[in-house]
Amino acid sequence: MSTVRGDLPAVVSPHPVGATLPSIYADDIYAQGLCESFDRMLGPAVLVLDCFPAYLDPATAPADSLNWLAGWIGLVLEGHESPAKKRELIGVGAELLRWRGTRRGVHDAVVAAFGVVPQITEPGGVTVSAEAPDHGPDATDDRDQMLAVTLTVADPESVDLSRLDAVVAQVKPVHLPHRVQVATG
Predict the structure, then answer these.
(1) Is residue 54 a contact partner of residue 61, using CB atoms and an 8 Å limit?
(2) Helix ranges, the chain (H)
(3) What is the pLDDT of residues 15-33, one digit of tens each?
(4) Smallest Cα–Cα separation from 104: which of 130, 84, 122, 82?
(5) What is d(CA 99, CA 85) in angstroms, rounded to the nearest whole number?
(6) pTM of the model
(7) pLDDT tens digits along 62-76
(8) Could you tell me which of 14, 34, 53, 65 has the fewest CB atoms within 10 Å of its CB?
(9) Structural domain of residue 108, as residue ranges?
(10) pLDDT tens-digit profile of 136-175?
(11) How far apart are CA 93 and CA 111, in angstroms?
(12) pLDDT value at residue 44
């Protein structure tokens, strides 16, 4: 789980708790020390609440809160360290939400994440049966009932196959099994 902001030691609360205590505690170093701890915890929260609309826009959100913002729309930004690339993917991801579960959604998500146009093969049909499918050792091959995503690149080692699998799993139709592969081209 990601948080909006981490510990920001330089941020102090604009409303110190110690100043609101009764005067008997004004010179009490233990009470004031406890209040300073509260101020240190509350400072980042007050900062976030004061400018919350800026946190919801990928163009203005602080770099350390981009993963949190991406989580709101179901994006995983692992493998991308550049804040500029993260901002771009969050903007694209918001548009991709309307296409999630479709061939276009898979295509656009892979292009956004890897910059390569994928080859997508899908079954494109539906089968109905009153009998449960046989998944035993003698079962027929279900590759024709599977979404297949292939990236053709010059250097297959440059593509993280597990990340490709995670991207496809996030945006594919939920009922359809999938496989991913990288080919030399």
Answers:
(1) yes
(2) 29-50, 52-55, 66-72, 83-96, 103-114, 161-171
(3) 888 888 999 998 999 999 9
(4) 122
(5) 21
(6) 0.61
(7) 888 898 898 888 777
(8) 53
(9) 100-185
(10) 555 555 556 789 999 999 998 889 899 899 889 988 988 8
(11) 12
(12) 79
Structural domains in the chain (count): 1
Look at residue 2 in the predicted model and tell me its pLDDT. 47
Nearest to 4 by CA among 65, 54, 74: 65
- Residue 185 and residue 10: Cα distance in Å, rounded? 51
What is the per-residue pLDDT across 84-118, written as a single tens digit (0 to 9) for each? 988 988 988 888 888 988 999 999 989 988 989 99
Domain membership flag for residue 180: yes
Q: Is residue 54 part of a domain?
A: no
Amino acid at residue number 156 = P
In a domain, 18, yes or no: no
- Calculate the alpha carbon distances from 149 to 1, 34, 93 in Å: 29, 57, 19
Q: Collapsing DSSP states into helix, strand and coil, what is residue 77?
A: coil
Least Cα distance to 16 among 7, 26, 24 occurs for 26
162 occurs within a structural domain:
yes
CB 69 within 8 A of CB 86: no
Strands lying side by side in the sheet with 119-121: 119-121, 147-153, 178-184
Q: At what angle do helices 103-114 and 83-96 cross, to 10 degrees?
A: 170
Reported residue count of the chain is: 185
